Amino acid sequence: NAGVTQTPKFRILKIGQSMTLQCTQDMNHNYMYWYRQDPGMGLKLIYYSVGAGITDKGEVPNGYNVSRSTTEDFPLRLELAAPSQTSVYFCASSSPLGVTSTDTQYFGPGTRLTVL
Amino acid sequence: RKEVEQDPGPFNVPEGATVAFNCTYSNSASQSFFWYRQDCRKEPKLLMSVYSSGNEDGRFTAQLNRASQYISLLIRDSKLSDSATYLCVVNIRNTGFQKLVFGTGTRLLVSP
Prior knowledge:
The complex is a heterodimer.
Chain A: E1 4-7, E2 10-13, E3 19-25, E4 31-37, E5 43-51, E6 54-57, E7 64-66, E8 76-78, E9 87-94, E10 106-107, E11 111-115
Parallel strand pairs in A: 2-11
Antiparallel strand pairs in A: 1-3, 3-8, 4-5, 4-9, 5-6, 7-8, 9-10, 9-11
Chain B: E1 4-6, E2 11-14, E3 19-25, E4 33-38, E5 45-50, E6 55-57, E7 60-65, E8 70-75, E9 84-94, E10 97-102, E11 106-111
Parallel strand pairs in B: 2-11
Antiparallel strand pairs in B: 1-3, 3-8, 4-5, 4-9, 6-7, 7-8, 9-10, 9-11
């Protein structure tokens, strides 16, 4: 199993450009998440999904959109990129949490985005 | 009060030392607890789950104190490769959806 994969690894955008960050998991997890992590800071949840066709906002959803048409894929769309969106973006997946005490999230390697 | 709080450190220790990190959480209904490790510019990776009775994995020991709402991680015989940021993670139910809340991490630097 590849686990959680993300593309691209790095990207530089100009202000106002748009892009889609790709995330795929092969663990048949229902739950998927997008986080951002600014330098020296903790993870902030952007959006999450509990299954295909179901998404919801996290703590910091403004400026982003998501869709979940399949169990495997959970792309994150940035519209009108701004310098404040410069960050590292991590995708994660999990089984439904809380069913067992060991249910937890598994992360992709991240996408490093710079907006200039 | 933050949902999960950790001392950011850094903790500077020599090789072979024993070091302990604590983490406090605010939601008394939390049921699952974890320690993750994050290397610089890498993704967080699960280090170990934390069980009520405490658990050990090699040089790492995790403890849970529900009464005081804190979790600890003890690292014995520190190695250079243990240098990383350690994230305390708590499962919290939020309006029916259970989510993991990540602490901001405690940085550990192990020196020769």
